[in-house]
């Protein structure tokens, strides 16, 4: 397994993260356990801040959907990044963490009236408006609340990134955004400029996720600047803000070749500036929305090995105490991960096994055919690069409680998400009066 951030192998031959022995973490906090490397998370934030903000004056918005807790909000704020949220729940988390609302941008393709009201009340910086229905509803609510809403229109540029079908978003046939090619985007611009409680600031696009080819970003930037120029020619309005989304790929397994953040910034900023110069337009303020490339490599999930089952001549299955409940990505996207046996991290591989989860689904497989030291019940398995879209997509299938999360640094581990209990699973369950025990007896007697 490739080591990331502060990972290392200590004198006991165990995997260590943030100065903490992962075997000790598993014993103290139980498994499955999400481990976040604080130093690595902050370093990733700083890489973006230096590459975009310090060098070009661009704004970096952390994509909260990848990993969001109160503690994560605090770290993002301290590192000088803004934040994009995509739901009332994410916005509420930011509010409770006292994240500055002047640095919050509200995404989502179907924001409810209640969510928009909450965001207006909180005074978020911008609404990333996805469609005309939302634009009109937002204008209506802003009028009722005697305020104005800052808006950036999400557009569909018609750029297809080379990634999994389920995480492509820039193509014309997408549930996201207003299409440039068929005139929807221009109509939305004219509508926004005419509405009395909308302040239009700019445009947004996002072409997909887990992208390694930087040319895709340059192409998207040029397409967006073409549209900025057309809007100026038709309306006289000048776009002051251009948000080019996120999606930079990270290393999960052999074959993944992530590009340096500095290269990503140079490509995007170069394309925007050149396009503006060619068209005689001022350079808009650029924004980007990294998420996975900040949180992903900073996260590791620890599991305890249970049953080991060998089918002679076929495969050896190693079952762990988690799976698709805490990491649904392999089942959804055929995502690949690396792993090591944390208590045997210094040992050479001795066998090829497949890591199975404990959910009652044949598709609950975390890793197929991985070479590891001989695996035994009770071993601790560490799966790397699980910081993005693991906790945030976790679920209670089979009534499995969600794992705890700890933040590690300098040999200290702090719980930032408590482990769910069986009682938590029942917290919202209600038995109606007609189904209570005494009532059931009466119904049975009447039959």
UniProtKB/TrEMBL annotation:
The active site is at residue 360. It catalyses: meso-2,6-diaminopimelate + H(+) = L-lysine + CO2. Keywords: Amino-acid biosynthesis, Decarboxylase, Lyase, Lysine biosynthesis, Pyridoxal phosphate. Its EC number is 4.1.1.20. It is an enzyme of class 4 (lyase). Its cofactor is pyridoxal 5'-phosphate. The keyword Lyase applies. Coiled coil: none annotated. The modification N6-(pyridoxal phosphate)lysine is found at residue 65. Pathway: Amino-acid biosynthesis; L-lysine biosynthesis via DAP pathway; L-lysine from DL-2,6-diaminopimelate: step 1/1. PROSITE patterns: ODR_DC_2_2. Substrate binds at residues 292, 329, 333, 361, 389. SUPFAM superfamilies: Alanine racemase C-terminal domain-like (SSF50621), PLP-binding barrel (SSF51419). Pyridoxal 5'-phosphate binds at residues 247, 289-292, 389. Pfam families: Orn_Arg_deC_N (PF02784), Orn_DAP_Arg_deC (PF00278). Belongs to the Orn/Lys/Arg decarboxylase class-II family. LysA subfamily. Specifically catalyzes the decarboxylation of meso-diaminopimelate (meso-DAP) to L-lysine. This is Diaminopimelate decarboxylase. It comes from Desulfofundulus thermobenzoicus.
């Amino acid at each position: 397994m490739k080591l990331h951030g502060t990972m290392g192998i200590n004198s006991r031959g165990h995997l260590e993260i943030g100065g903490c022995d992962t075997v000790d973490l598993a014993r103290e906090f139980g498994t499955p356990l999400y481990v976040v490397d604080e130093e690595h998370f902050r370093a990733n934030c700083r890489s973006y801040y230096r590459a975009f903000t310090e060098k070009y004056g661009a704004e970096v918005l952390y994509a909260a959907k990848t990993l969001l807790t109160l503690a994560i909000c605090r770290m993002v704020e301290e590192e000088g990044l803004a934040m994009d949220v995509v739901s009332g729940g994410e916005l509420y988390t930011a509010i409770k963490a006292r994240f500055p609302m002047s640095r919050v941008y509200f995404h989502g393709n179907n924001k409810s009236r209640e969510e928009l009201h909450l965001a207006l009340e909180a005074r978020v910086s911008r609404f990333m408006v996805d469609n005309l229905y939302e634009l009109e509803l937002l204008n209506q609510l802003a009028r009722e609340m005697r305020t104005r809403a800052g808006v950036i229109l999400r557009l569909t540029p018609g750029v297809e990134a080379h990634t999994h079908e389920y995480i492509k978003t820039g193509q014309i046939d997408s549930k996201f955004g207003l299409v440039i090619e068929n005139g929807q985007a221009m109509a939305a611009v004219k509508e926004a400029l005419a509405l009395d409680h909308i302040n239009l600031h700019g445009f947004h696009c996002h072409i997909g996720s887990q992208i390694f080819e930087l040319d895709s970003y340059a192409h998207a930037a040029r397409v967006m600047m073409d549209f900025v120029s057309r809007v100026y020619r038709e309306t006289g309005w000048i776009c002051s803000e251009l948000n080019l989304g996120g999606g930079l790929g990270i290393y999960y397994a052999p074959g993944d070749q992530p590009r340096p953040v500095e290269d990503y910034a140079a490509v995007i900023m170069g394309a925007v500036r050149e396009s503006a110069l060619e068209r005689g337009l001022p350079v808009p303020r650029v924004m980007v929305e990294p998420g996975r490339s900040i949180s992903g490599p900073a996260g590791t999930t620890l599991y305890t090995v249970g049953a080991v089952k060998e089918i002679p001549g076929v495969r050896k299955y190693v079952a762990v105490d988690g799976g698709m409940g805490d990491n649904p990505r392999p089942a959804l996207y055929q995502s690949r991960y690396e792993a090591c046996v944390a208590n045997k991290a210094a040992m050479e591989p001795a066998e090829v096994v497949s890591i199975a989860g404990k959910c009652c689904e044949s598709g609950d497989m975390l890793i197929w055919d991985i070479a590891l030291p001989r695996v035994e019940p009770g071993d601790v398995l560490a799966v790397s690069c699980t910081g993005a879209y693991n906790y945030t997509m976790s679920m209670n299938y089979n009534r499995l409680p969600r794992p705890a999360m700890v933040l590690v640094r300098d040999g200290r581990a702090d719980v930032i998400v408590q482990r769910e209990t069986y009682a938590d699973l029942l917290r919202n369950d209600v038995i109606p009066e007609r189904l209570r025990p005494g009532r059931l007896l009466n119904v049975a007697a009447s039959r």
